[in-house]
Batch of 3 targets.
Target 1
Amino acid sequence: MNIVLGITGGIAAYKAPDLVRRLRERGADVQIVMTASAAEFVTETALQAVSGRPIRSNLWDKEAEAAMSHIELARWADVVLIAPATAEVMARIVSGGAPDLLTTICLATEAPIALAPAMNHVMWSNPATQSNREVLEQRGIHILGPAVGSQACGETGAGRMLDPDTIAATVCGLSVGKGEGALVGKTVVITAGPTREAIDPVRYITNRSSGKMGYAVARAAAAQGAGVILVSGPVNLPEPPGIDVHHVTTAAEMYEEAHRHIDKADIFIATAAVADYRPANVPEQKIKKNSENTSIDLVPCPDILASVSTLEDPPFTVGFAAETENVEQYARSKLEKKKLDMIVANQVGHNRGFDRDDNQLSVLWKNGKKEFAEATKIELARDLVELVAERFYAARGADTQPKLTIISTSD
Ligand code: C5P
């Protein structure tokens, strides 16, 4: 796998040599492209030593361009990763400007682009940066993190670069077929996002699910070598490359699509926030308003998860329980009632859970439990998939469990 690693000028650039090592450990060829300000934080000498390739930094370097032009570099890349990505480089990519080698490559490449933002937390939450993030995501650019925690400036908040190992695992998961990881040879079917249930031709019932957790779980499963089939409700997220994505709108469509693939599944993970009810009758014309009170007759939607877990020969089934109160108690009763192998419980509402980049989880199974402390959904998905793989092999009593690709080491 060929990775163009762009390094921009933030303090987190000091972690770049470690990131290069993590990428190379996973078999990637890494060509570094630095901006001038990155050189203020990390030396070319260190980066050249760990990457084993001369560093590129200048668009006008005739010799380097003769060896491999910026267009050839853009074509060579299987993935363009920028880590750390400053607010400035995000803004430049949004504007489509190409004043330097790195942004020129971003404009010229057809490969997936992933950014690991790193900046002061106030800069990250600035509306300008957030609107740039939204535009980048809409254009299919993968935004990895940032993580929450203490920052070099002495403050605490969202803006830390994700740890190099997590970035490396996620980016390598963006290209499939590595033949490594705990789930090699296994197929994982995942539902994600909300569903929409029509009230009339212009209105619908939906919920606040963003799909971020499900998409992160899909990438994490791919990073462990699984073949991943993602059945997605309407979300505003880029399609993860190498993952077989099927888009649906309603709960009934999600049910149909999940069942179309379920006989291939070794593991089924239901992260979707499926509507529990849909309007009983959907008129062909828009319902006219009047001054009277009104009501909508609702009928239950099919429970996809329960229908999979009660199949004659079900895959290993993992459900999610989003609750606003009594989280663990409700989750455990759902685990039993729906006959699941595992359930992942999280608190939602009051600014928690839905449509956020971070979360905290309790994972429950018949005789066990594991807590995952607050972290980004990318980090949680990585840990969750490792645990799912462990429990899957424990449940199947397999003695041929492939080696887990450890993507959470820190040294
Ligand atoms: O019963 P509840 O909706 O709280 O259960 C949540 C779990 O069940 C989630 O894993 C969700 O994806 C799944 N579910 C489903 N089909 C439904 C409702 C929920 O697959 N109709």
Target 2
Amino acid sequence: MFDLTPLTEAVIKGNAPQAKELTEKALEAGVSPGTILQEGLIPGMAEVGRRFEAREYYVPELLIAARAMHAALDVLRPLLTESEEVQPLGRVVIGTVRGDLHDIGKNLVTMMLEGSGFEVKDLGIDVAPEKFVEAIKEGNYDILAMSALLTTTMPSMKATIDALTEAGLRDKVKIMIGGAPITQEYADQIGADGYGEDANQAVRVAKQLLGLPAD
Ligand code: B1M
């Protein structure tokens, strides 16, 4: 049984080279990418968040932890996004909303969607409502997916939905939202079509929104 604790520790300490190396070693030892993610990496970021809340960590520690997480995710990305689908299940445009720079969760959702056969266009972070509207106008997307990690940026989700409605495009796409402060109640309140609590659920919700079978 491969011990993932050192990997969790590498994320907590923000040791990017070690996080990368331990992820590679775990894969070589036959640990699945999903297990590495759920049992090695995500608990590391959760602990980083706890330390930040307890004021044991400050922004620089968050940044170096995020860098370590990205180094490990870069190793997992090709494996998580491997898909046998030829025709995409659907087309998704995703972004972290205006004012928000958190992208680890969004990147995970992107990888899981791609790995499940969706084609995903990632608009990145700090995406203004107008940019989402422009993408929907110009691209042929089935789902608009928004991520927010700050209570102060959650209203950008509603602003984006309002901007789409104003542009007459609201009915053109299904809207899915998620991120640590987001709830189903909030999704209902702002008129989103779906809410995903984590990256796995995001895939389930995306399939549900397009009327596709769960598996
Ligand atoms: Co910030 N930060 N941060 N931060 N940060 C949080 C979010 C915070 C909760 C920490 C805390 O106080 N405990 C807090 C927010 C408080 C609040 O609003 N309630 C906070 C704060 C305050 C801030 C700053 C304001 C700090 C400051 O400057 N004083 C600042 C804001 C900057 C900005 O965005 N404008 C800031 C900055 C940063 C860094 C840049 C340093 C860094 C981000 C680096 C990066 O992303 N590239 C950072 C980090 C790392 C965090 C924590 C520690 C970790 C976030 C993370 O990556 N989690 C975070 C504390 C925490 O969450 N415990 C915190 C791991 C990731 C896998 O989980 O992103 O939740 P998550 O994604 C999950 C689900 O939410 C879901 O699936 C994902 C996978 O399971 N999901 C979706 C996400 N998007 C989805 C979309 C979907 C469906 C599901 O459908 C579309």
Target 3
Amino acid sequence: MVGYAFMGAAHSQGWRTVGRVFDLPLNPVMAAVCGRDPAAVRAAAGKLGWAAAETDWRALIARDDVQLVDICTPGDSHAEIAVAALEAGKHVLCEKPLANTVAEAEAMAEAARRAGDRGRIAMVGFNYRRTPAIALARLMVRDGRIGTLRHVRVTYLQDWIVDPEFPLVWRLQKEYAGSGALGDLGAHIVDLAQHLSGEPLVGVSAVTETFVRERPLPGGAVVGLSTAAGGGAARGAVTVDDAALFTGRLACGALAAFEVSRVAAGRKNSLRIELNGDRGSLAFDLERLNELYFHDHTEPAASSGFRRILVTEADHPYLEAWWPPGHGLGYEHTFVHQARDLVHAIAAGTEPEPSFADGLQVQRVLAAVEESAARNSVYTPVLPALVQEAS
Ligand code: SOE
């Protein structure tokens, strides 16, 4: 694994747990974790359960005891590490968003296609697909339980940077993160809208905003009395969006509405999605992630309405390995399920979902959102690979 911050810790929990809960065809071994600071990465190895520590990702992918590279770094290093690992014959799991640009994502998808010819697997870490309630919703949409899709409505709201004095961390700098709430939160909900509907977004209209345009540098770096504010911590420019609102059309003709924000005061990690079809609707709220709400419009109006499905039955996705009905799961279990599905794909030699091609499609939507927002919200097509190659 490369990187050991929040996502590294969440992935480590997945790798520590997966073999002790699911019956797997292969046994994942946590061979080595990589980070630039020698003391910090050694401490992380001990705390997170990795057998060794490396300080250069090139040395990590050169190790003979490493067959799978799990990339948990900021987006600016995803392409370089993933392409090198795939070309070195390793399987790859890469955190979302796949990359910071469409060009990088295209290179990664092409490297994954070539590696696939050599039996190597590449997955992108849209972990919310592996919430049992979301996986159940996908099956219900596929089985026609809501009929012909008309609407998808998704929001993903956080509030960790409402305070203008929150420092200028890497997620707020385009050179590291590629974009702000759009790539960090928007990638998840674009993927979910496409995954649940089974349809790609074909065009979007968007607005984005950066409400706080300058923040203190991390670590309270003081540059003497010469700072603009006449002293105190130096401040730097925020180069990414704080929020984005966009509408879109799915290939099937359904309309989709998206909202992402990191300044929605009071919303901590609030991902909500609703799908409306001509036979019913499904609704999910990450803050109640063991529940799926279903409205069957074919029922008599007098007794119909959204009802709660408690997604904890043994025959619900992933639940066969956990507890009796009613004993709910949490955020961390999505990473255990992600590890399970990746191990099965590696053992079977099948392309996992979401693939790097799925990650590239999301990257194309994000790019169309940014292009639309830069051009007064003009409706902007999401260029599929086919058109891309033709142009
Ligand atoms: C921060 O916004 C973050 O950690 C995202 O980067 C994750 O993808 C999301 O699952 C939780 O919030």
